[in-house]
């Protein structure tokens, strides 16, 4: 016997019935995007490595430790599996001059890849849904993408997700804050762990996001970026808060909230839950007004968010939300194999009319087929018995209403009665 081949560690199969929850989630997302007039964009899974080095920053954890990077053996190109979605979407918009006629509201759904230790909510192949609004510079779009998340939580039946917001200001403001931050950490160098010491001069803002209990008091006392923001940045942030207030959306201004990529400025935000342990952030995003220029385009503002699908579905399960199970409208019972040609014709006609029909295959007694029909969850059984077919009919038996009577329908033109099998 050949050696069994298994999936790569941290890259998981999604099989029925679990896949039905994913389809439900994706359908819910697509319906939301239609309501907000966001259009779908699909980018390659493999991109040139410099896109992420330039876009995310050389000293980010993603670029330094987590990317699946390799050299194309055919032409020597440095390539990487995408670790996130924003850089690829912006690259596509720039490459195809998509902003020539104005801003674009886009969304994507797909797999991302990071080489890290697999754990609950963090896998080496994980999946994200994200939105990117490019070409819009005002706080109105910031509020829109944040409130879009709120609408999604409602559509999914999730009521226990809170919003944190912050402003990172502009590069010059962050530069002044960065100098003050480094000076503060240097005065407390004895409290810094190895990771913080490594980041001290390369990415000190990320030290604010530490989970090390021994550093919490020192980090809490660090200079806050909001104290270094200029008038324009504060005006943008105040306008965002005013719109969230008007929409009745609670939020917490979290001065320690930062993002892991270098391209963020002004508004940043996270949606957080206490139901998933340490991996409590299920959506994060913010404004990245310099990224378009960074990847070779004409300067244009942008804002977006990315949401981990695995984490959201984990939260759905934790909160006991039960997505509707996919069930056929009808189950076709064929006691005699000789009736299969006629049954197949009728079933295909019903499917063409929009009826979901599961056809029994593999033979078996009438009793065993009825058991499978009942287990399928179908609302009706279609019985292609010899007597019925001799009369040019198929028997239609309700399976979920004991009081409803069995009826007979003509097999000559199933489209005439197909609508009777659909849910009201």
Automatic annotation (TrEMBL):
EC number: 6.1.1.21
Signal sequence range: none
Catalytic activity: tRNA(His) + L-histidine + ATP = L-histidyl-tRNA(His) + AMP + diphosphate + H(+)
InterPro entries: aa-tRNA-synth_II, aa-tRNA-synth_II/BPL/LPL, Anticodon-bd, Anticodon-bd_dom_sf, His-tRNA-ligase, HisRS-like_core, HisRS/HisZ, HisRS_anticodon
SUPFAM superfamilies: Class II aaRS ABD-related (SSF52954), Class II aaRS and biotin synthetases (SSF55681)
Keywords: Aminoacyl-tRNA synthetase, ATP-binding, Cytoplasm, Ligase, Nucleotide-binding, Protein biosynthesis
PROSITE patterns cross-referenced by the UniProt entry: AA_TRNA_LIGASE_II
Quaternary structure, from the entry: Homodimer.
PANTHER family cross-referenced by the UniProt entry: HISTIDINE--TRNA LIGASE, MITOCHONDRIAL-RELATED, HISTIDYL-TRNA SYNTHETASE
NCBIfam families to which the protein is assigned, alphabetical: hisS
Family: Belongs to the class-II aminoacyl-tRNA synthetase family.
Name of the protein in question: Histidine--tRNA ligase
Native species: Rubrivivax benzoatilyticus
Upper classification of the organism: Bacteria, Pseudomonadati, Pseudomonadota, Betaproteobacteria, Burkholderiales
């Amino acid at each position: 016997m050949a050696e069994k081949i298994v999936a790569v560690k941290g890259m998981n199969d999604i099989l029925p019935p679990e896949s039905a929850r994913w389809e439900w989630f994706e359908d819910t997302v697509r319906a939301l995007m239609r309501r907000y007039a966001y259009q779908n964009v699909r980018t390659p899974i493999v991109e040139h490595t410099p896109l992420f080095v330039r876009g995310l920053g050389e000293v980010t954890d993603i670029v330094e430790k987590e990317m699946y990077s390799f050299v194309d053996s055919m032409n020597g190109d440095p390539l990487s599996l995408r670790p996130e979605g924003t850089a690829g979407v912006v690259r596509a918009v720039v490459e195809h001059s998509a902003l020539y006629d104005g801003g674009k509201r886009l969304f994507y759904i797909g797999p991302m890849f990071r080489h890290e230790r697999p754990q609950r909510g963090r896998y080496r192949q994980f999946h994200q849904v994200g939105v990117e609004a490019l070409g819009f510079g005002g706080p109105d779009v910031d509020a829109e993408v944040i409130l879009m998340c709120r609408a999604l939580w409602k559509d999914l039946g999730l009521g226990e997700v809170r919003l944190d917001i912050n402003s990172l200001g502009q590069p010059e403001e962050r530069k002044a804050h960065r100098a003050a931050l480094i000076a503060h950490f240097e005065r407390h160098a004895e409290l810094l762990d190895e990771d913080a010491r490594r980041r001290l001069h390369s990415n000190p803002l990320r030290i604010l996001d530490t989970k090390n209990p021994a550093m919490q008091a020192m980090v809490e006392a660090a200079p806050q970026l909001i104290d270094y923001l200029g008038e324009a940045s504060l005006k943008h942030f105040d306008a965002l808060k005013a719109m969230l207030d008007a929409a009745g959306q609670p939020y917490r201004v979290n001065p320690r909230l930062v993002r892991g990529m270098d391209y963020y400025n002004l508004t940043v935000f996270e949606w957080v839950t206490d139901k998933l342990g340490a991996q409590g952030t299920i959506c994060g995003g913010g404004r990245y007004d310099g990224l378009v220029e960074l990847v070779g385009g004409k300067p244009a503002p942008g804002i977006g968010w990315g949401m981990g699908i695995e984490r959201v579905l984990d939260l759905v399960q934790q909160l006991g939300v039960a997505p509707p199970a996919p069930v056929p409208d009808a189950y076709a019972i064929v006691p005699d194999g000789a009736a299969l040609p006629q049954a197949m014709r009728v079933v295909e006609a019903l499917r063409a009319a929009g009826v979901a029909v599961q056809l029994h295959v593999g033979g078996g007694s009438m009793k065993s087929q009825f058991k499978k029909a009942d287990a399928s969850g179908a609302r009706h059984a279609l019985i292609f018995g010899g007597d019925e077919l001799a009369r040019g009919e198929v028997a239609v038996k309700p399976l979920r209403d004991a009081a409803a009577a069995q009826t007979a329908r003509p097999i000559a033109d199933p489209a005439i009665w197909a609508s009777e099998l659909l849910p009201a």
